[in-house]
Amino acid sequence: MNIIIVSDYAHIDGGASSVAINSAIAFAKSGHNVVFFSSVSPIDANLRINGIEVICIESSELTTNRSKSILTGIWNIRSRNLLSNLLEKYNKTETKIFIHSWTKSLSASIFSAVIKAKFESSLILHDYFSVCPNGAFYNFEQQKICNFKPLGFSCIASNCDSRSYSIKIWRLVRQFILRNVLSKYLKHGGKLIFVSEFSETKMQKYLPDNYLSKVLVTPIFGIKHCPKIDVSSNNMIGFIGRLVDEKGVKFLADSLLPYADRVVFIGSGPLEDYIRKKSNKYTITGWLQHDQLDDVYRTLRFNIFSSEIFETDGLVIKEIGKLGIPSIVSSLTAGSSYINNGDNGIIYKPNDSSNLIDKIDILKNDKTLDKISDNTYKYFNQEISSEKKYINNLLS
Question: Do 368 and 390 share a structural domain?
Fold first, then answer.
């Protein structure tokens, strides 16, 4: 089978690109002929190491050359034409396309190429951009969840963008075009793959009727069945991710002051100074290589997943869960759907410091922690699909 993976980035720059690259490698290792079609370099070396043909059109990411990208970000003719040219080389009965991301550079024009070629294809919904102009159902200006109907009057009038209202207007134009193109894509047999039942519930009422879809939980690529970490011998509290408002980082920096010397922020972002000003006892590691990350993971007692946006999945929760590290998870996010409260993790009320502290107190007891850790390890190693099962389900 010929597999064509479509992704804005040819390197790992977040969850969508990570899944795109790692699934491409998994397909190649299973004997499929894989082509990786992307836009933003550099190219991840692991793609070519695994015999994957990479087409990177070297188009600017939208934030790097805004004046030039205003039009191409809405409708990138070059990416559409190059994808069309690529598809002409393959037999549509022996080829499947998986689209992971398009908003940063490729644009909605790629759907036009797929519709014209009549190939079997699936759009994997790693975010909410297919229905929401800013991709998050979140008002970044007010730092709160947005409940407006996408593209309704209140949505159009709302200054919700993380940068400016002028960018919001640009996103609205793009969204109206996408809505039309996506409707055609689904009518021509394009499939939707949701990464969680949670995200399907959030999006389905805003999507066209009668579309083909399924829910496939994303595996944690590259992590095999590992020995469980003895978390009760550790004392560090972890946060893993980009240090930005919508991930609940300010909330954590404010709430965890009594534990500051035990808290490690694993990641980087614009709130690093805010964290340091709150307490010089907080540790910020920056982004880490895999071996460094493993070393830090082995110091964790538990993790806090504090996102203030819905998210579509909880990759971090699954990743550390396979090591037996439990998470305290905001009830607001998709990650909470993996947690049986008090059994394989703990759920807390979002933006409620006292409730979070109460949950942390539960895990002070080693016996309780060990029981939850055991259940966490069992659940995330047995219930989350393997790489092989995941790609087989993609093809089915």
Answer: no
